[in-house]
Design goal:
heterodimer, A: Immunoglobulin-like, four-stranded antiparallel beta sheet, 33% helix, B: 234 residues, Rna Polymerase Sigma Factor, Chain: A, Arc Repressor Mutant, subunit A
Chain lengths: 259, 234
Amino acid sequence: MKVLRRDPHSLSGAYALDALEDSEREHFEQHLQRCQDCQQEVRGLRDTATQLALAVARMPPPQLRGLVLEAAARTGQNPPVSEHRAGAQPRHARAQRRARAPRLARVPRLLGVAATAAAVAVAVVLGFTEAATQHRLDRAQAQEQAIVAVLNAPDARIVVNRVSGGGTATVVFSRASHKMIFTTAGLPPLAASKVYELWVLAPHAARRAGLLPAPSEGRTAPLLAAGLGRGDSAAVTVEPAGGTSQPTRKPIVAIPLTG
Amino acid sequence: MAGPCLVSVATGRIGKIAARRDTNLPPVGVRMDGMDTRDKRVPEQGAGPRGNGDPNLDWLLAHVARGDHGAFEQVYDRLAGPVYGLIRKVVRDPAQSEEVAQEVLLEVWRNASRFDPAKGGATTWVMMIAHRRAIDRVRSATAEAQRDQKSAIAEAAASLDEVAEAVEANLDRERVRRCLNSLTDLQRESITLAYYGGYTYRQVAGLLNMALGTIKTRIRDGLIRMRDCLGVGA
């Protein structure tokens, strides 16, 4: 097949949509490694393609969840790859495979009795059930510890607010450590194409603080946000799946972090 | 909107916190690697556009990379809808779509350690895997044989209508639809055929009976226009 060698740059759009044939793609990827502008452009165009993808989100068949989670439980994981390409290329990565510690592998695993006790304390405070707690414990020891640190701050305050549309939001915040944890109970379930997104609202700006996790028994696991300033509020909006960089809707709850 | 209510329930809870301070708790100020949602290792510019850069999702994937099944469950809950929706759009057959979605989500589990937030957002990474798997499926030899050119164009047009139908429910879809409509017909058709139809730009040129270079250019110009219209990226 004839490869368009003269102007590889113009293939960035087709590349971002996976619309190149194999030989062209390989050729373009070689070009991409030397072309910073192209990398930047490809990234923007890929993010644009992601918007096209999110626009057609739909509810998967209910049995898929069990199938996927069971399969994951039986399946080992691949080691990281060192790559110098814009975007991961799992299909073409084999040649470049090289053992490297996962990026976060050095995070100390904060295990043990103290951590368990601490996490249970969080659970009691936030009203989680025992079973849900143990589950969460196993998967996010470090997070629980950080949350306990906020709960344990001498100036920790709790505010509970009603959420318009139903449910409550609970914030525990420490002005001294500029951190808060946020959790909800009884929020109405959303369609698959939507998420609850948490924001830290300053007087003239909004910073994203993560998407609320799927609720367990009506409650969402706590989210932690740092870097709070004077006059900030915690707010939640309903956004398209994947979240947004700025709120596009009116908050369903906003809690000033004062006093 | 109701103001904050520091009600007695809340004060009761503060009491519980105070009581817990005396128990065997870890010291305040534990390391928080990967915790802060605005962690420096998750650069905002890498997060890119609206919708594609959820630092929390980046963080979850980092945990998935360490074999954390709970984190994977959360990733599933956030991305299964977008993954399945895109695959269904490209592959069309429900049973095959489910199969491919399962493969993709399992690939996210297996290859989570290869996700690099410095190179782009987690959502984009996962949607790229989903799109590639979907087109692998429709570009296979047997699938090709079943594809009828006229119906492909009709379906690409229909997909635009479906996007339009979702309008009331979702501001983001509305924006995508509006931005798609701001393109020229040829730009829009080329992009939807390539992305939702899973065709290469050569095949798109064949389907639309246009010169290869023209389609190549229309796809790029159209995507750039979409990007600017959606406010994606820098």
